[in-house]
Amino acid sequence: MSNPEITETPEQLRAELERLRARVAELERSPAVQTPPFWFDQVNDAIFITDTDWRIVYWNKAAERLYGWPTAQAIGQHIDKIIPIDRYMDGINDAAQIEIIVRTGGWRGVFLQRTRDRRELVIDGATRAFHDDQGAIKGYIGINRDITERHQVQAALRISEERFRAIIENGAEAVLLVGADRQIRYVSPSISRLLGYSIDQVRRL
Length: 205
Known about the structure:
With 205 residues, the protein is of the alpha+beta class. 39% of the residues lie in helices and 24% in strands. The chain contains 8 helices and 8 strands. It has helices at residues 10-28, 61-67, 71-74, 79-82, 94-104, 148-170, 189-195, 199-203, and strands at residues 46-50, 56-59, 87-88, 106-114, 120-131, 137-146, 176-178, 184-187. β4 (106-114) and β5 form a beta hairpin. The longest helix is centred in the last third of the chain and has 23 residues, at 148-170.
């Protein structure tokens, strides 16, 4: 599987981080970790909450749908037993992820996981620590979004573009692409062969 990428702009990423921080702040105002805001069950993203040992204390309905694990079976389990991360796309590992969360307060990235029935998922996930009044970590909250379909579309598009480019660059047909500003954007190798000019020379015509 080719590597998926986070396609949001920096502004969108900052907005997403601010929304996550607001969610964590609301959670910290709750009477207890076991009673998170009611709207956690109204969203489409999987949300889980763990204690400091990474044992699940909350598992929303979207997490049930996405991963196939009922809440009753998820609660009390270590997060790595229920939804381990198979591979991080940025090359880190579990230990590095936890170190980043503890040091900076949170982490976001793209990674591969599997459902209960072993179906592979591409996940865009964010995990943050939340703290007690003394500043000590009292648990973690994760929000995971399934981007498997988007990744598959992007991968198919990349393959299509690569095949198209290969056909053009190896074909006998002359192809010249010109932008709206009348600047030459692409010159196929066949034009160079037909006209006797290099590609750079054709671009300067």
